[in-house]
Design a protein that fits this description.
heterodimer, A: 111 residues, mainly beta, 6-stranded mixed β-sheet, 5-stranded antiparallel β-sheet, B: 114 residues, 4-stranded antiparallel β-sheet, 11 strands
Chain lengths: 111, 114
């Protein structure tokens, strides 16, 4: 079973626009992570937010976490063609580092 | 540093054949994981290891076995491949599991079972 579910499933935007995607989950977590996957490649870690944090920034990325609503959002500002990828949220609940991934959001950024 | 490497990159098997996927990491990470990724789905955890000599079942362990004889290597075995095991397999490693740590992923192995 998947813990996280992303919304939307697909997103098409133009360069310079912002991209926002959401992740909802079902049970309590101790951290939530976002990963990017370029076509045919492995996943690359973007950002981790712990359950006691509400917002984190990393470069053009902004992540929020609302544990009362069991949801998170990832904002990519000033998108570039190189941001074209699938984005996955993953929730961690235990001390073994196991993650449960959502199905992902496919983002296409056109020049 | 090579990070996390996986061999082979591609493989085609016939139903009933066996094979082993090798994952190697050079970051001295304690924790290693095997996932499978199917179309339209996120990654699902098959097995994981929290240190040399240890293994544990993940979400979808049936039909797979693993071994972690050396800290840097994590092997995934399919004893009798089935078409349902056609998938892309990813290995990942992390420094520890405590309080959440990022996982570093390999490039994947695309397996087709006919």
């Amino acid at each position: 079973s998947q813990q996280g579910e992303e919304d939307p499933q697909a997103l098409s935007i133009q360069e310079g626009e912002n991209a926002t995607m959401n992740c909802s989950y079902k049970t309590s977590i101790n951290n939530l992570q976002w990963y990017r996957q370029n076509s045919g490649r492995g996943l690359v870690h973007l950002i981790l937010i712990r359950s006691n944090e509400r917002e984190k920034h990393s470069g053009r990325l902004r992540v929020t976490l609302d544990t009362s609503k069991k949801s998170s959002s990832l904002l990519i500002t000033a998108s570039r063609a190189a941001d074209t990828a699938s984005y996955f949220c993953a929730t961690g609940r235990d001390s073994w580092g196991k993650l449960q991934f959502g199905a992902g959001t496919q983002v296409v950024v056109t020049p | 540093n090579a990070g996390v490497t996986q061999t082979p990159k591609f493989r085609v098997l016939k139903t009933g054949q066996s094979m082993t996927l090798l994952c190697a990491q050079d970051m001295n990470h304690e924790y290693m994981y095997w996932y499978r990724q199917d179309p339209g789905m996120g990654l699902r955890l098959i097995h994981y290891s929290v240190g040399e000599g240890t293994t544990a079942k993940g979400e979808v362990p049936d039909g797979y076995n693993v071994s972690r004889l050396k800290k840097q290597n994590f092997l995934l075995g399919l004893e009798s491949a089935a078409p349902s095991q056609t998938s892309v397999y990813f290995c990942a490693s992390s420094y520890s599991g405590l309080a959440g740590n990022e996982q570093f992923f390999g490039p994947g192995t695309r397996l087709t079972v006919l």
